[in-house]
Design a protein that fits this description.
Blueprint (H helix, E strand, L loop, with lengths): L4 H26 L5 E6 L2 E6 L1
Antiparallel strand pairs: 1-2
Length: 50
């Protein structure tokens, strides 16, 4: 089985695009939301404004 140069560039490009999309989605998931945050824990109620 022989892969020509164009197919190799296509595969590498698809992998780069996939990595970029997954990285962006991970960044968006980890980013703190703006607004009001209310936490209820063992020390009681905590309200933080962002």
């Amino acid at each position: 089985m022989s892969i020509n140069r164009n197919d190799l560039f296509l595969i590498i490009g698809a992998l780069v695009v996939t990595a970029a999309v997954l990285g962006y989605n991970l960044y968006q998931a980890k980013k703190q939301p703006d607004g009001l945050q209310i936490n209820v824990g063992p020390n009681g109620l905590k309200i933080q404004g962002k």
